[in-house]
Every structure is written in structure tokens, then in C-alpha cells.
């Protein structure tokens, strides 16, 4: 098993094919290792709707309990519901999910007490080392007294907590289509939206980890086609799509038009700043639109640019005392949600904003969506380093152009920018480009792609 761990222990989580790459005996070792590395006396564990999730989750709980740790199982939940439990109970937590990956995959997202992230540098490498040792030799020594395993339902409390963070008392009636993608949104949405003046049109709310209708990744345009069509058919005010573990949300307007996660970041940032008296730090990653820092400054806030990835965002939020953070991948982080990401809370902000005025969503978000963007374009390359060097060489001598290497390579001009980053797990380069108009964006996008693809 030790050789296989390099394939399943990623930068921020554990993820792989079940049972080929990992299974319940290995999950039990992960539970024991998590107990030892966190040094805790109690943890909370939850899981998504994948067929393998209940068994893996229970095995993890057994492994932790054998080391003397008391385990609270919250059962079926979204990832942000697990973060809620970790925050409110002040316990380390483990969520069994592979988010939007295909059905044969599963994984573990782990956090310390208060939903603080566990990544390679914050415990995950130590957990992997222990599991490798135990898988290769003898199992971990059980504690003199085993911990208990108990069950607790947190759904109602989670929903009430979220509703308490957004004023929804005076919104007008709205018709909203929600595509849960057969994921955990089907579990959380009915409870979170209960009591609001909404006509809810549910799509694919039946929890099914084999994803019979479409992949539960709303960032892929192919996966929101059904939602767009239904919004138009229903003459709805908006549509919302959640990913498999319902921690990300994607929004479409009344015409079915997709709304950029950068525009949602800017919208929520303006609301959070208003709530904090027009002051506060807002985190955004380096592939969000120019609109985001502009809107933040216009609303009195201070924008801070970071690398892509939830561990960087959460670390920066904790260090800087930021009130909100957003990523172009549709992850939204809130200081009043333990700096953790919750797409559901972002969705409530969108509903509150739309319901608090009379105009359509398309008109409302126009002020937050100011530039032409390429979206993320992936290219398979033989040598990531050589291609990045070629891009750098092509642009570094150009007048009026700046380069930075905070995360991959970002090239910025007065009228455009683009970023190229290497994938950590595949031989890919990821390109994001933005410009003041569509023609300039197309030109700079194609120019960069020509170098990337040789």
C-alpha cells in the first residue's frame, strides 16, 4: 500500500479510486493517524452520498476510536456542513467525499478544530507517513480505553446558522431552479431554504453517487446546460448549481446566462464590506477578474491577491483578519464561517441581493462583470517548465508589460492580463486571460496558446 499513497495523498486532501487505490482497512489507518497527528480527544466525521462513503467513514471512525478518541458521526452532509460542525463543536473533522470526481473515486478532506485546513504542511504529510509505516509493518497500538462513536444530526442547526448570517427577512418572492447534480445539495437545500419566500424548482435532488444525469462539476459548461434550459422554461428569476459535496455554487441569470464566479465574489464582497462599515480585507486569488479588486476598493475595502487554492486563501484570511475571500473556481470563504468555504452562504447572499430590489439578476450583476474573460483553458504539454520559460522569454522584454511568479506566471499589461499555471497532478498548463474587450482578449489568448502548445 505504501507505494500507492503517493497517488492518493494530494496537496490538500486524500483522493483516489475505491477499492483499487484505497479501501476501508486503509481508511481505518487514516483515522488512527488523524487522531495521533491532531492530538485530540474527540473528532467529528461526515460523508457524502457516494456508495463507498458510509463504509469508509465508519472505518475511519473505528480507527480513531481505537486510539482513544471519541467520534461524533454526523452522517450524510455537505462539506461546508462538516466545517460547520468542526467550527461549532470546536473539533477536528474529516469529510468523506471526492467532490465532483467520478463515482469510483472517494477521498477525505480533513481539518483541525474550528475548520482550520489540514494540508501537506499542516499535518497531511505526517498523516501519510504514519499510514505508510502502519501499512508496511504492524498496525498502530490501540489505546488502553477505546473512544466512543456517537451520532448527531447537525442539518437544522447548520441551516439556521447560515440563515442567521444573511438578512433575508424582506426579500420579494423569487422563483429559483436548483440543480443539485444528484449530490449533497439535494440534502441541504430544502432545509436551508425552508421558510424563505422562494418557489423552489428542484433538479436532480435524488442523492446518487453514480451521477446518472451529469458530472457534478458546475464549472464545466456542459454540466449546466440542463439548468439553463430549465430556468428559461420555468421563467425563473435565477438558477443555482452545486457540485457533488455542495461546497461550491454556480449561478445563472433569468436568461440562463452563466454568471462569472468573479462577479459573485465582487457582489458578496460589497455586501460583506457594507456589513463591516465599509472597511475590511477581501482576499481574491490571482485568476479572479480585475473587477474584484476594483469593486473592493470602490466599497472602501482592501483587496489582497493570493495564490490559487483553499489552503492559501484560508491561511491568508487567518493571518490578515480578512472578512471574505473568493476564488474563480466558485469557492467562497467567510470570516463568520470560521474562514471556511461555503457555496450555500454565497447563494443566500445572491438571493438576498436579488430579492432586495426589483430588477433582474442580469442587470444587477452587470456592474460586477466588466471585462472579457477566456475562462480556464487546459493544454496537455510534455514539459511544463520549458513551456513556462518560453512564455516568459516571449514577454519579458516587451514594453509596458509586467511579470510575476506568485503562482505560475502572470503577464500584465494596461489592457489585458493572463496567467499560466501548471497542474500539480496532470501534465497540463492552465491558461486564464482577461482584457478590456473581447477582441483584445481573443488575440492575447490565442497568442499565449500558440506558445503553450508549441
The end-to-end span amounts to 39 Å
Summarize the biggest pleated sheet.
7 strands, mixed
Radius of gyration, taken over Cα atoms and rounded to an integer in Å: 22 Å
Mean pLDDT, rounded to whole units?
Answer: 96
Name the shape in a single word: globular
User: Would you identify the regions where 5 or more consecutive residues have pLDDT less than 50?
Assistant: none
- The class by helix and strand makeup works out as alpha/beta
Strand residue content: 15-25%
CATH secondary-structure class of the largest domain: Alpha Beta
Oligomer: single chain
The CATH topology of the largest domain: Alpha-D-Glucose-1,6-Bisphosphate, Chain A, domain 3
Helix content: 25-40%
- Indicate the CATH architecture of the largest domain: 3-Layer(aba) Sandwich
CATH superfamily of the largest domain: Alpha-D-Glucose-1,6-Bisphosphate, subunit A, domain 3
Number of domain modules: 4
Number of strand elements: 22
Number of contiguous helices: 15
Amino acid at each position: 500500500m505504501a507505494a500507492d499513497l503517493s497517488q492518493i495523498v494530494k496537496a490538500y486532501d486524500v483522493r483516489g479510486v475505491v477499492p483499487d487505490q484505497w479501501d476501508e482497512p486503509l481508511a481505518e489507518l487514516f483515522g488512527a493517524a488523524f487522531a495521533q497527528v491532531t492530538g485530540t480527544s474527540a473528532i467529528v466525521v461526515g460523508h457524502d452520498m457516494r456508495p463507498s462513503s458510509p463504509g469508509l467513514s465508519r472505518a475511519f471512525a473505528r480507527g480513531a476510536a481505537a486510539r482513544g478518541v471519541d467520534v461524533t458521526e454526523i452522517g450524510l452532509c455537505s462539506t461546508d456542513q462538516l466545517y460547520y460542525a468542526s467550527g461549532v463543536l470546536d473539533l477536528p473533522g474529516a469529510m468523506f467525499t471526492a467532490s465532483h470526481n467520478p463515482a469510483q473515486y472517494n477521498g477525505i478532506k480533513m481539518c483541525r478544530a474550528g475548520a482550520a485546513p489540514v494540508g501537506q504542511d499542516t499535518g497531511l504529510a505526517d498523516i501519510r507517513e504514519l499510514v505508510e509505516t502502519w501499512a508496511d509493518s504492524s498496525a498502530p497500538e490501540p489505546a488502553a480505553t477505546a473512544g466512543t462513536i456517537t451520532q448527531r444530526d447537525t442539518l437544522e442547526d447548520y441551516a439556521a446558522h447560515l440563515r442567521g448570517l444573511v438578512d433575508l427577512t424582506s426579500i420579494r418572492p423569487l422563483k429559483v431552479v436548483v440543480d443539485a447534480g444528484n449530490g449533497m445539495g439535494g440534502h441541504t437545500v430544502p432545509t436551508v431554504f425552508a421558510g424563505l419566500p422562494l418557489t423552489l424548482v428542484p433538479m436532480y435532488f435524488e442523492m446518487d453517487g453514480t451521477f446518472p444525469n451529469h458530472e457534478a462539476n458546475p464549472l464545466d459548461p456542459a454540466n449546466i446546460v440542463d439548468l439553463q434550459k430549465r430556468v428559461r422554461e420555468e421563467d425563473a428569476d435565477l438558477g443555482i448549481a452545486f457540485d457533488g459535496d455542495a461546497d461550491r455554487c454556480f449561478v445563472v441569470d433569468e436568461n440562463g446566462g452563466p454568471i462569472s464566479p468573479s462577479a459573485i465574489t465582487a457582489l458578496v464582497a460589497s455586501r460583506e464590506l457594507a456589513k463591516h462599515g465599509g472597511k475590511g480585507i477581501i482576499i481574491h486569488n490571482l485568476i479572479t477578474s480585475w473587477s474584484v479588486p476594483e469593486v473592493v476598493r470602490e466599497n472602501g475595502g482592501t483587496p489582497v491577491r493570493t495564490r490559487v487554492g483553499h489552503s492559501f486563501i484560508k491561511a491568508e484570511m487567518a493571518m490578515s483578519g480578512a472578512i471574505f475571500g473568493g476564488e474563480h473556481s466558485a469557492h467562497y470563504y467567510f470570516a463568520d464561517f470560521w474562514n471556511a468555504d461555503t457555496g450555500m452562504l454565497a447563494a443566500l447572499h445572491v438571493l438576498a441581493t436579488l430579492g432586495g430590489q426589483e430588477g433582474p439578476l442580469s442587470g444587477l450583476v452587470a456592474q460586477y462583470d466588466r471585462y472579457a474573460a477566456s475562462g480556464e483553458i487546459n493544454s496537455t504539454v510534455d514539459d511544463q517548465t520549458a513551456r513556462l520559460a518560453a512564455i516568459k522569454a516571449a514577454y519579458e522584454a516587451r514594453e509596458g508589460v509586467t511579470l510575476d511568479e506568485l503562482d505560475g506566471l502572470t503577464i500584465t499589461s494596461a489592457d489585458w492580463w493572463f496567467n499560466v499555471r501548471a497542474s500539480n497532478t496532470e501534465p497540463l498548463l492552465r491558461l486564464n486571460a482577461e482584457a478590456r474587450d473581447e477582441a483584445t482578449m481573443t488575440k492575447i489568448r490565442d497568442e499565449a496558446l500558440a506558445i503553450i502548445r508549441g
